[in-house]
Write a structure and sequence with these properties.
Keywords: DNA-binding, Transcription, Transcription regulation. It contains 9 helices and no strands. By secondary structure, the chain is mainly alpha-helical. It has 2 domains: 12-60, Homeodomain-like (Arc Repressor Mutant, subunit A, Orthogonal Bundle), CATH 1.10.10.60; 69-202, Orthogonal Bundle (Tetracycline Repressor, domain 2).
Length: 207
């Protein structure tokens, strides 16, 4: 019995990578603004200034493009925060990260919510592959939060379970982002994140 393997995609040229990224970036912005259901392949083609042959050369269908957008948002949102997440091994580091998140929502005028959470909320019940991809992005985010908390725990500064605490912080963050989006007000996010910092501080040997 032989096992069939999927062929590896051909390595893109530099120009090909740029074209593909232009399409993904345009699709990500459209899906952030209008949702996945409100974004058509024709919309993406026009926004990316790409031809139909270019669009379908890189993405066989809309689902393939959606998966690429999830990967893009994973790298943009979570990957972009990794330098700050690497410094979450102190209350000061947590405050700096939370301050960044609140200011980012102010800059966006509280519109759009979390790009990853919004994709997950829209696709979780209709697209199993997308749900798994979004889950992976959240796991990466949770892992980044957990790393700093583990460091505090290993130094004897944190009494609480880093695993549970990281999950609690991420869940609270997502809820705060959703309410901030709905109310067009950063206060829900500010209050939620402050409560999380206070909760962590209450379990540490440092103020």
């Amino acid at each position: 019995m032989t096992t069939r393997t999927e062929p590896r995609p051909a390595k893109l040229t530099r120009k090909g990578e740029q074209t593909r990224m232009r399409i993904v970036t345009a699709a990500a912005q459209l899906m952030f603004d209008n949702g996945v259901a409100g974004t058509t392949m024709e919309d993406v083609k026009e926004a990316a200034q790409a031809s139909s042959s270019q669009l379908y050369h890189y993405f066989a269908d809309k689902q393939a493009l959606v998966l690429a957008v999830i990967a893009y948002q994973d790298e943009t949102v979570v990957g972009g925060q990794e330098p700050m997440l690497a410094r979450l091994d102190s209350i000061e580091g947590l405050r700096a990260w939370c301050g960044f998140l609140v200011q980012h929502q102010r800059d966006l005028e509280c519109r759009g919510g979390c790009p990853i959470g919004s994709l997950g909320g829209e696709l979780a019940e209709t697209d199993p592959k997308a749900r798994v991809a979004v889950s992976g992005a959240f796991q990466r985010w949770e892992s980044g939060i957990r790393g700093g908390l583990h460091a505090m725990h290993e130094r004897g500064e944190l009494a609480a379970d880093p695993e549970d605490l990281a999950l609690t912080i991420l869940a609270a963050l997502q809820g705060g982002l959703l309410l901030t989006q709905i109310h067009r007000d950063v206060r829900p996010l500010e209050v939620t994140l402050k409560a999380m910092i206070d909760h962590v501080a209450a379990h540490t040997a440092q103020p």
